[in-house]
Amino acid sequence: MLFLFFGGVIKVEVLNINGAERQFADGVPATIADLLNHLGIKAATVVAEIDGTIVHRDKFAKTNLRHGQSIELVRFAGGG
Amino acid sequence: MTDKLVIADREFQSRLLVGTGKFASCEIMAEAIEKSGTEVVTVALRRVDIENENDDMLAAIDRDKYLLLPNTSGARDAEEAVRLSKLARAATGINWVKLEVTPDPYYLLPDPVETLKAAEILVQDGFVVLPYINADPILAKKLEDAGTATVMPLASPIGSNQGLQTRAALEIIIEQANVPVVVDAGLGLPSHAAEAMEIGADAVLVNTAIAAAADPAEMAVAFKLAVEAGRTARLSGPGAVSRRASASSPLTGFLRNK
Prior knowledge:
The complex is a heterodimer of chains A (80) and B (258).
Chain A lengths: L1 E4 L2 E4 L1 E5 L2 E5 L7 H8 L7 E4 L2 E3 L14 E9 L2
Parallel strand pairs in A: 3-7
Antiparallel strand pairs in A: 1-2, 3-4, 5-6, 5-7
Chain B lengths: L4 E3 L2 E3 L3 E4 L6 H11 L3 E8 L19 E4 L7 H15 L3 E4 L12 H13 L3 E6 L3 H10 L5 E2 L13 H10 L5 E3 L5 H9 L4 E4 L1 H4 L4 H21 L22
Parallel strand pairs in B: 3-4, 3-10, 4-5, 6-7, 7-8, 9-10
Antiparallel strand pairs in B: 1-2
């Protein structure tokens, strides 16, 4: 989406993260690593899925994000 | 001690697997795991809580010491279980998975049809599959034939602490199995775990009974001892059960005349 704002062009983009839509006023973060950084999440224990495809941790910094993608961020929790 | 538990290609000294759910804190969990003597701990896979970024329970588990066994809890069908298994594999770097498909929220009983379906897919994909099942001897056989590494029949519903409600069926599964039988779910007391081992289970998995105890670390010790006692009893060859008494003192030389 493009919005005119104070005479300039601001690119509002969205990602669906863990089932909830999230807006990014200045475009989505460039990579998964950037997104985690933006959200304040430590990458060390996280696994990501983009539109149903698993992204391994070592690819976080190389995996580009696009407007409209669905991202799952999961990690281990206690369980039996 | 040469009596080892062998699952797939791995050997374990301990026959007690411990779940990591329901502990009041990571510290309490870590201490209970340590005291239990376990070598395998189960974990669940969940969405990161983006608004509340504080929960990293994995840091409390020494992965050099304990094999992390991810479960597929929350899966309602085979497709969801396969997806969770693949995510877990990506997270751990190993291909072991405790397969759980529990569409019923009240009793958390496993779906046999979807479990078998998921097991077949996962085995084909190279996973070491440990399926959680009802105590169904036919299903256990079919899973074994499909190539699962164990079968994990339930003693009673998850977290119910009811003990071996399925004992008769468990005995049939144990009698027929060519893979390790891990009795999972519902073991509420060390005596239940000992009973499972006495009837020939290869191992047991305990979570709630330890995690929800007033002193989880001490309860972990109790379960460790019970599992060892039950296993030793099994290997020692228990005597026969009979309806009538069988005197343990001599029936001669009584201090009477007739």
